[in-house]
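Thread: Newbie trying to understand structure tokens

Hi all, I'm a second-year student working on a class project, and my supervisor (Dr. K.) asked me to get a predicted structure for one chain before our next meeting. I've only ever worked with sequences, so writing a 3D structure as a token string is new to me. If someone could post the tokens and maybe explain what I'm looking at, I'd be very grateful. Here's the chain:
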Amino acid sequence: MNDIVEATPSPAAFLSVGLAIKLSLVRDGQKVMYGSTLLGWKDHAWLVCEWPVLLSHDQRVESGTPCTVSYLHEGKLVGYRSEIRDLMRSPVPLLFVAFPKAVEEMHLRKHLRVSANEPILLIQADQTNRSASVLPASGYFGGLLKDLSEGGCSVTMVQRPAWLRPGSTIRLEFELPGLGHVTNLTGVVKNVDVGSGTETVGVEFRFNEMEYIEYRGWGGSVRNAIEQCVFQRASTPFLIP
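---
Reply by user tm_fold:
Sure, no problem. This is what the structure looks like when written as tokens:
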């Protein structure tokens, strides 16, 4: 990604009804992020959006509460600092936020990639039809997930097993903090980079095969969970201090 740049906002250029947005604010001393949808705006005055699904209707958000708004637009991550202007609970719950004075943009590669630091398990594809209790030790290998995008990831390890080479099909198992545990995600090794004392493999994901995510009632797909995780982390530069 390139450095963040500021731009003078042009509503016709970056706003559209139905745009999926993220609202970030501080509640009870913790930074939280809510998904919502832009419903409309008044130039240089306010934006109106749906009441965030994860914010219950009886939760109080004070007028003047600082927040940020961020979203993806034409290959760029766009965000700006704002504040809550007003709430409307009836007949339809709506949230009003201040119109931006300036926006920040980050140009993205094909798939937005963010840093990570979670353990990950890599398994030979032809070993996944066996139960975990009978998997041979040579058929799986642990590493450290170093970055993540909707399209793939990179994994670092001290020593790479012989079967983990470019073109190999593997299965991946790892945690998406706050979202769930991804299991049996198919990947193809695209490249290997040998560094000082470590080796890093680049993996491209293959969705809609046998992957699934385990987490208390999470009903989304693995692809959607990864996309949400990446978007949340990428929005960090726009979060209020």
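A couple of things are worth pointing out once you decode it. The longest strand covers residues 180-194. The CA atoms of residues 231 and 237 lie 11 Å apart. Feel free to ask follow-ups in this thread.
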